[in-house]
Amino acid sequence: MIYFDHNATTPVDERVLEAMQPFLTTFYGNPSSLYRHGRIVRSAIDAAREQVATLVDAPAARIVFTSGGTEANNLALATLAPNSRLALSAIEHPSITEPALHLKSRGHDVDMINVDSNGCLTPDAIDRLVETLPALVSIMLANNETGLIQNLADISERLSGHGIIIHTDAVQAVGKIPVSFKQLGVQLMSLSSHKIYGPKGCGALVFAKGVTINPLILGGGQENNLRAGTENVAAIVGFGKAAELAQSELAERSAHLLKLRKCLEDGLSTIPGLVIFAEHADRLANTVQFGIPEIDGEMLLMKLDQKSIAVSSGSACASGGAEPSSVLTAMGVEAGLAKSAIRVSLGKTNTEAEIIKFINLLKSLVGQA
C-alpha cells in the first residue's frame, strides 16, 4: 500500500516503539505509587514531559498530558468562564467547532472569524476581534485539510494588550515546522502524539502562567490535579520519544517533504482543470489538497483505495458526510469543486517513485492518461 494520509495519522516510528516497550512489560508500576517501581515510571513521565516541552519551546511544568488532541482542545475551551464570549476561525477542526456549539447551547456567545480564499484570517476579522473582545480566541496554527499555515505570531501581537486568551490547535503543525509556544504569543496550545510518529491515545495541552485550567476529568491528583486518572505511561513515553526525534530530524524531514511536494504538484499541474487549494499560500511541506471539476472526491478516493493508494477527502474526523468540507466552504470554494476534494498528506518514508505512480494512476482514473 502507498500511504498518503499522514495528516490523519502516522505509523509509529520503530525507535518510539522500542522506547515504549519496557513500560508495557517490565516497568508496569503505577506512577502514583511511592515505592521504587512507581518512582521509575514517574521519572519516565517527567522525562517525556521535558521532551515534549523542548519540541514546542515551553516550560515542562506548563504541559498537561491528555488522551489526544481532541481532549486537549476540549480542555482549552473549558477554560472559559460562564457566559463569556468565544471566537474561532471558520476553518477549525471538529474537535473545536463541536465543543464550541455545546458551549453556545450553554449560554456562551460564539463568533466565527472569517477567512480569505486561502484560509487566512482577514485584517477586518482581526479588527473585529479587538472590537468584540472575546474572552478566548481559537485559531489553528496549520490547517489539517489544506496545510495552510496561519501567521499566528502577528495575529497574537495585534490582539495583545486586550486581555484575550489565545488558543491554537497546533496538532498538524508540530513536527513539520518550527513551533515556539513563547514566540507565537499564545496562552494555550494543543498537541497530539500520533501526528508525529508516536502512539495514538496521547496528547497534551500547553498553558501559560496565569491561565486557569478547569479539569474535565475529576478523580485522583494526577497531572497536578488537572487531569485525573492513571497515566497512559507507555503512550506518554512514546510521545516524548517522538517529540525528541521530531526536534532532531525536523530540518531533514522538511527538506524531504518539500522535495516530494514539488514532485507531486508538478505532476498535478499536468491535469487540466485541477485546482490546488491555497496553492500560493504558506503551507505545510507535506500537504496538498486539490479538486477536479465534475469529479466525485469520495468515489475517486475509493477507486484509489482499490489500487492500494490511501488518500483522504479532508479531515479524517469529519469524513462520511454528504456536505462539502466546511474548511473549503469558508474559503469560498464552490460546492461542486469542494466535493471533488482529495487530500494528499505525505510522510517521511514516502518516495518520488510513489508520487509518480500516484500521478499516473490519477490521470487514468480521471480520463487524462
Give a structural overview.
The protein has 2 domains: 2-10 and 250-365, Aspartate Aminotransferase, domain 1 (Alpha-Beta Complex); 14-248, Type I PLP-dependent aspartate aminotransferase-like (Major domain) (Aspartate Aminotransferase, domain 2). It is built from 14 helices and 12 strands. The longest helix is centred in the N-terminal third of the chain and has 21 residues, at 36-56. It is globular. The protein is α/β, with parallel strands linked by helices and 369 residues long. The chain starts with a strand and ends with a helix. The protein has a 7-stranded mixed sheet with strand order 2-8-7-6-5-3-4, sandwiched between helices. Helix 1 (14-20) packs antiparallel against helix 9 (233-248), helix 2 runs parallel beside helix 9 and helix 3 runs parallel beside helix 4.
Biggest sheet, spatial arrangement of strands: 2-8-7-6-5-3-4
Radius of gyration from CA coordinates: 21 Å
Strand content: 5-15%
Q: List the total number of helices.
A: 14
Please provide the count of β strands.
12
CATH topology of the largest domain: Aspartate Aminotransferase, domain 2
User: What is the percent of helical residues?
Assistant: 25-40%
CATH homologous group name of the largest domain: Type I PLP-dependent aspartate aminotransferase-like (Major domain)
Spell out the helices and strands N to C: EHHEHEHEHEHEHEEHHHEEHEHHEH
Structural class: alpha/beta
CATH class of the largest domain: Alpha Beta
Total count of domains: 2
Spatial gap, N to C terminus:
22 Å
Silhouette? globular
Which sheet architecture does the biggest sheet show? 7 strands, mixed
Overall pLDDT confidence: 95
CATH architecture of the largest domain: 3-Layer(aba) Sandwich
